Every structure is written in C-alpha cells, then in structure tokens.
Amino acid sequence: MTERKIRVLVGKPGLDGHDRGAKTVATVLRDHGMEVIYTGLHQTPEMIAEVAAQEDVDVVGLSILSGAHMALFPRVKSELAARGMGEVLLVGGGIIPPEDAEALEAQGYARLFGPGSPTEEIAEWIEARMSERLAGEGGRA
Amino acid sequence: MSSAADIVERLKAGERAAVARLISWAENGDPRFGGALGALFERVGRGRRTGITGPPGAGKSTLTNEFTGLSRAAGRTVGILAVDPSSPFSGGALLGDRIRMEERTSDSGVFIRSMASRGSHGGLARAAIDACDVMDAFGFEELLVETVGVGQAEFDVMEAVDTVVVVLCPGAGDGIQAMKAGLLEVADVLVVNKADVAGAERLLTDLEDAVSLRRRAEGAWEPPVVACAAGRGEGVTGVWEAVERHRAWLAVDGHLEARRARLRLAQVRGAVAEGLDGRLWRSGGLDERARALLAAGETPYDVAAELLSAVSAGSVEPEEVSGS
Ligand SMILES: Nc1nc2c(ncn2[C@@H]2O[C@H](COP(=O)(O)OP(=O)(O)OP(=O)(O)O)[C@@H](O)[C@H]2O)c(=O)[nH]1
Ligand SMILES: [Mg+2]
Questions:
Q1: Structure ipTM
Q2: Which secondary structure element, helix H or strand E, spans residue B204, and what is its range?
C-alpha cells in the first residue's frame, strides 16, 4: 500500500439512460492501472462534486449526451472548488459540438473528447497530466 | 501539498475533504499519515465498527445501504468504507459499491469511501483500520466496512471491525463452501440474503447445522443465522438487531477491549512490515546485495541468512525517508 494511484470518478450526469460510453471509459482507465469510482446514472453537479470529494479523486470524467454540457462543466467546477477540490481535472466525452468543446477548454473548464476519439487517448491524456502534476509535487498530493 | 497539522485542523473544523485526503495518505503509505493520526488519536475509539463480507454479489452493498438507513433513522451518522479487489493484471480497479448507496450522496450525515485492495500483504488491513480511525476521529458514529470475501488480503480487512456480518445467498455456493472459505469462522452474524429466492431455506438450515456443530469455548459467542431480503428491505431490522446483540456481548467481560487490542496490533504489524519493506528493499539496497550474492552462486537460503544477519547486526543503513 505504498503506491500513489490515479483515482478517477466516472459519472454519467443528466437524464438520458445510456451509460455504455461511461462504462467503456471506466474499463479502459482501470486497464491503465487507475482506480475508477463509477457512480452510475442521474447525478447532479452537487452529487458529482460531493462524491469526488469523499473519494479524493484526481480526475472527474463525465459522459454527456444530453446537450447540457455548457452549463454542467462550470457548475461541477464551482461545486468542486467549494469543497476545496478546485485542483481536480475535468474530462468530458460524448456528443459535444466542436465550438462548445473549444469554448469550454479555452475557459479552462475541461478537456473534451469528441465521439470519434479513441478511449486510449483519454487514458493517455490523464496519465500525461498526472505525471506532470505529481512531478511538481514531489510525488505526493 | 499540505502538512499534517493543516489537514488535522481542517478535519477538526468539519471539512469532509480532509477526511478523504487523510484516507488517501493512509492508503498511499504517506509518511505524513502517522503524525496526523497521532494528533487525532484522542478522538478515535467512539465509533462502532461493523464489517460486511461475503461472496461477490451476495448483497453486501445493498445490506450496507439498509444498515445506513436504519442508523440514520436512529439519528446516527455513518461512515462507510467499501473495499473492492484491484486487478492483478493492471493494478487498477473498478469501484462500484457506491452505486447501491447513491441515495446517500445528498445526506451530509453519511460519508462513503471506496478503496481498492491493491493486492498488498497486510497493508490492506492496516489501511482499512486507518480509514476507520480517520472517520471515527471526524465523528461518524457507525462505521461500516464492506469487503468481498475472496482472498486473504480482503479477509484480513475484518480485523478492522468489532462485529463481522457474513452475507451469503442461495446460488453463490452452499454452507459447505462457506465453511471451506473460512467465512463461518470469521462470522459474528450469519446472514442468508435473498430470502425471496429459491434455496434460501435450505441454505439457512445448512448454516444453522454448521454453526451448531462447531466446537466453541465456554462463554464464546455463537453466531446467529438470520434471513433477509435486503433488496426488498425485508428482514433487515432483524439482522441489525443481531448486530446489536453482538455489541451487547462485546460490551461485557472485556470482549471489546480484546478485539480492539487485536486491531491495534494488526495496525502496528502492518505499519512495521511496510516500513521495513520500504526501507530495506527500496532504500537499504538489500535488492542489490541479494542479486550480487545470487550471482556469486550462493543458494537462496544462504543469501537470506546473510541478509538477515546483516539486518540484525545493524549494518543495513536505511536512508532517510524522503518527505517525512
Ligand atoms: N432477489 C434478490 N436480489 C437481491 C437482494 N439483495 C440484493 N439483490 C441483488 O443482488 C445483486 C448484488 O447486490 P449487491 O448489493 O451489489 O451485492 P454485493 O455483495 O455488494 O456485490 P459485490 O460488491 O459486487 O460483491 C444486485 O443485483 C441486487 O439487486 C434480495 O434480497 N433479493
Ligand atoms: Mg458491493
């Protein structure tokens, strides 16, 4: 029990019931050695942030299909900050128009991966960001 | 990066993220954890610790959620530690127990933490005890620890608790298999869940027979066998009453003190084993010495004997552990 593992919350907010995408991502991240907490369906921004805080995750990954992303990511971000978890990396996947994805990324809310992007890419992006961060902290947080 | 003193202050101020961060320190073997727990230790020991174990899919999380509901109805706060196995291949884990407890996320009287077993020898039990201590220090009154009863490491987690509830269900093996797996020995309360499913009656009588056949010392606790259908919320109160009866038994004749002493010893052993492991192998250079001796043609046991005597002679100098 002496190894720092990357902990990721994979959530599926909103009211649409498709969670296959989220489950696929969760499995791929697990296969990359990450500890993935899966929260299932129908999560509100408050609930996502609260779970992220209780689980002390490094990354929150949200799968979006409902089109509510422009409002959602900023709300999750502020709920996280209110819990002293402002550092958490936000990652989104699903059907998000490219201009929205650019806007959210430019404002620093999240890194978005479109429907065509291979899941491996998400895992590699998280690994790269986390190794930068842990190097900066001397391996600890 | 925060110091142990900061995090202790944040926890005392009621910040739940501080509970979470301290549990992370515990599971990562962070050198700051010991100091932090030391500063909180006078607050530790009030929470009641119950373990829920059993085969995969028996209904442990569902029952944990029901226990949580009963405790909340009685006005008690609940801290939950849900342990799931790590993948031996990737080292990663899928932690999904909290899905069955989703309704609790909006209740500030409940805290749920998922933990992966990380396949380590002894370290998991130590980390589980640490996590309970942290939740206890925060003030959670009922501490529930769920773990799947598959391997020794997961089993050892039950060292962290005062009362062990073993959950079985029809279809996940019969009473004999439970006996073979050692689940009967560890149980303080035996639960047949999914009482609504065919075969539950049979499992119940199997278990009652198995329990009555076991030899027990005078005055020892005899685990009651209780049926419920946690998924339907049926019979759960009866299970919780059995837990309460075990607690009443613990409260007399020093039983609880004996359990807690065993728990503290497991925690010390875990910390010592991991500390030695880290210092000797990682910083003390025993690895290189072993490799060199083996390359020089010595047998494994000769190498081991040589290293052991070097350790006891104190000629292995552990480096200063960084960051502490
Ligand atoms: N028929 C029936 N099904 C139940 C009952 N309780 C739980 N289940 C179902 O059993 C399955 C497993 O329940 P969980 O509570 O996740 O079991 P678990 O032991 O925590 O599972 P793991 O943590 O994955 O080992 C779920 O599909 C539940 O809905 C019950 O009383 N009757
Ligand atoms: Mg479970």
A1: 0.90
A2: helix B200-213
